[in-house]
Amino acid sequence: MALKEDFEEHAEKAKTLPENTSNENKLILYGLYKQATVGNVNTSRPGMFNMKDRAKWDAWKSVEGKSQEVAMNDYITKVKQLKEEAAGSA
């Protein structure tokens, strides 16, 4: 399976992660997804009163410089890990 197809399949799987998935893990996925689909951060950091968007921006910024292929692979690995953890705790 091509990397892009595998990535898109796991992006769909990520939508079915349990409600109790930690915000930290959600932010890791968000940052990797944005890096894989958009590339490096291309917006300015949101203001300090916009905590949610600021955290998302920081997560994206933390993976800046990764190639889109590496970000896709890391995203797929993280989704698999979270799905396994969820299955193990069910």
Structural write-up:
Residues 3-88 form the ACB domain. This is ACB domain-containing protein. It is flat and about 40 Å long. It has 4 helices and no strands. The chain has 90 residues and is mainly alpha-helical. Helix 1 (3-14) packs parallel to helix 4 (68-89). The chain has helices at residues 3-14, 23-37, 51-62, 68-89. The mean pLDDT is 96. The termini are far apart.
According to DSSP, the number of beta strands is 0
Q: Distance N terminus to C terminus? A: 29 Å
Low-confidence stretches: none
Helix content: 55-70%
The helix/strand class is: mainly alpha
Rg calc:
13 Å
Strand content: under 5%
Shape: flat
Chain-averaged pLDDT: 96
Q: What's the helix-strand series?
A: HHHH
- DSSP summary: helix tally: 4
SSE topology sketch:
Blueprint: H1 3-14, H2 23-37, H3 51-62, H4 68-89
Helix pairs in contact: 1-4, 2-3, 2-4
State the gist of this model.
This protein is mainly α. The chain is built from four helices and no strands.
Features:
mainly alpha; single chain; 90 residues
